[in-house]
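Researcher: Go.
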Amino acid sequence: MAKRKSPRLRTVNKSVSAYPLNQFNSEFPYILGQEIVYLLASKGRADLQGNEWEQIFALCIGAEWKPSNVGLDDVVMGNTAWGAKTVKSGIKDFTNLKQVRLISGRNSPVYSYGGTIDTTADPNLIGEQVLEIWNERVSAIREKFKHLRTVVLVKSNDLSQVAVFEFDTIRYDTELFDFVWNPRGNLEGFVKGTKDKQFVWQPHGSQFTIIEKVPEQTLILKIKRPEVLDKEKILNAIGFDKSWVTIKHK
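Model: Structure:
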């Protein structure tokens, strides 16, 4: 009897992300460093806001900056979208970074589910509601983009040192976490059966914070502080005079 053959199938093309996670191209560090040096020289102070980081990251990878109300898809490249976060750290050596606390939106169970909340409420019920609000946001974005990531810029107070890493933005299985009210009246979520804190939620303001571990594959840069650009010289160089300003009254 002839041996049965396995059927030949058409190749199924899987959706490929913009690039492998945390594998930034060779020019990425230099473009990022250039933008931070220019920011320091032009502003004269170490002030890098979240929307500036979104634009810089988009420039570094050749993506499109599309600021979003949700904050999960501010940068877009093909089938991949990123939410961009900045966080300060006072650690002297960024190679010792272990984790960061990322403010990740305002999740209000009172608005979404109704009722009132205080520390007498079942913490696991409130924690489940907080996570479900987050999960719905993630699901809505994933309907548009196959790959969804968060890219984090950790910065020193003077911007002399920065670290960049990214991770997949995911839904969280509520059954994997235990929630408790802490002495300050905030809700804390721990990985079930451990002391690993993953979430903090504040009833007043509904601020939701995710505690994320810093991966081994993190890009760390040290930045040389430039001389501050001379404002008068710049204005003279572009030929500024009073004719550039038109005065109007209401």
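Model: The chain has a mean pLDDT of 93.
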